User: What shape does this take?
Amino acid sequence: MRTLFLIDGEHYPPVVLDAMRRVREQLGAKGVAAAFLGGTEKIGEGADYGLPLVAAEDPVSAVRQALERYGVEAVVDLSDEPVVGYRERMRIASLALAAGARYVGSDFELRPPEMRRVPGKPSLAVIGTGKRVGKTALTGYLARLLDREGFRPAVVSMGRGGPPEPEVLEGRRLEVGSDYLLRALERGAHAASDYYETAALSRVTTVGCRRCGGGLAGEPFVSNVLEGARIAAGLDTGITVFDGSGAAIPPVEVDRRVLVAGAHQDPEYVAGYLGAYRLLISDLLVLTMAEEPMAPPGRVEELVRRVREVRPDLPVIPAVFRPRPVGEVRGMKVAYVSTAPPAVLKRLAGHLEEGYGCEVVAVSGNLSNRSKLAEDLEGMPGVDAYLTEIKAAAVDVVTRRGAEEGRRVIYCDNDPVAEGLDDALLHLARAAGRGRSGDRGV
Assistant: This one.
């Protein structure tokens, strides 16, 4: 196992040499280099560690340079405080995992997620830094864009409420409306799962999959995504788009990745911890909800600065979401139901009224809180229709209630609005057709 040792000058060199010998014996490690992370207390000039030594202005840079020079399978950390702390170690872990190497310390081991290659078609993945950042909305938007441009996409959707066996929904052929979703609910399916949403709103072929658990670097504990990917490879489509789940990453090797992060998130979740790993393996960052009050003043600039510290070359596109009904609502009195926070509901309602000619007489952002949602719906008499996202309780509460009351239920998508987004996404799709050896810049 080709190993990079991380060492510092706070340890006496003979102690480090003995530790390296023990690691070689215990792990079967073959030391190919050492990265010197700093510290001078116990080291003199000319210390010889028996390996090529890489040093830089800071610990993270030293590790980055060593990983670039030497192909390694493991990074073994023999350093300690005060040279490296928790934050530095998380950055080092991100670098190691992105290079495909294990990161091993005295009481921890992190390994890169196992990404399986499914041959046959160009592929993209849309991954996120957490739940409710708009990842599935962006996936749907990307699918529609690719469909319009002749790429013939299929989406493999990975969700916490997906089916036990991968299920194919031909969105173009099916009328995935309220009746269809209610029947799915009666069969015991999670009818608001992401793959139903994508099929219903984007009208492209969608393969529904499930996952449970997510590791620090995003690997699901259990999933049937690999089976779904093989099914997608056999479909009469031209490109496959994999939709992640929360911060979990589809365990499939792809040609290009789009990372979706929310400007409302703590910058440490985006560029710190193992958010840095997600930045390192991605080709584009879409920074959603990039407006007040979701993002406080200066937050977008701060996030871009933090991202640049990790990936100076990563394109970043700030974006906002705006609701788009998939049915006619002009002249109707509607109740708008979503997962949006209260601070932006008025703005979204105004967009619906101005852009689609309806009157929004009631709003609720409690789609993911069934008890509060039920209370909100009780206070919405006199509406012609419920306008709802396909999320959380959209089917079992809102759609079912609409059917019982004889009111229409019209589903609503969320479109990202951002300058240059279409060009950037299409660039990645074309690059995916050339494989990962193609130009990765946007």
